[in-house]
Design brief:
Largest sheet: 4 strands, antiparallel
Number of strands: 6
Order of helices and strands: EHEEEEHE
Strand content: 35-45%
Distance between the termini: 30 Å
Structural class: alpha+beta
Shape: flat
Length: 124
């Protein structure tokens, strides 16, 4: 059964989602967990405590937040599995609609990507 990673992106600093969205998400995740679709996931704190390691030209350096250039950040993530891509897309639309209904003043980008099982062979 294919597995997927879903994540939401939004502008940094938009504040906490409304209680109605938390309640709707609790119900949605409970249903998806019971169906064996939702495997794991959660929300993320802001970038003020984030740590990045950048590999550039063979050198590694650590960069701590906050990041003045960041416009959108990942606000949450989930690992899910579906019987088909069509089922995954339909469910992702339902997930996006929860945000549109309960937090319409914030632009949220809901992304769904299939998890790779790895390349056939490593690249050269």
């Amino acid at each position: 059964m294919p597995r997927f990673m879903g994540f939401v992106r939004m502008e940094e600093g938009v504040g906490m989602p409304p209680k109605a969205l938390f309640e709707a998400m609790d119900e949605y995740i409970g249903k998806q967990s019971a169906n064996g679709v939702f495997l794991d996931g959660g929300g993320l704190y802001g970038t003020e405590d984030a740590v990045n390691f950048i590999s550039r030209k063979g050198e590694v350096s650590r960069v701590d937040g906050p990041y003045a250039e960041a416009k959108e950040v990942v606000g949450g993530w989930a690992i899910m599995q579906y019987d088909s891509m069509e089922a995954a897309v339909a469910d992702q639309k339902e997930f996006a609609q929860l945000h549109a209904k309960h937090w319409p003043e914030v632009t949220v980008i809901s992304t769904l990507r299939q998890i790779s099982t790895g390349p056939e062979e490593p690249g050269d």
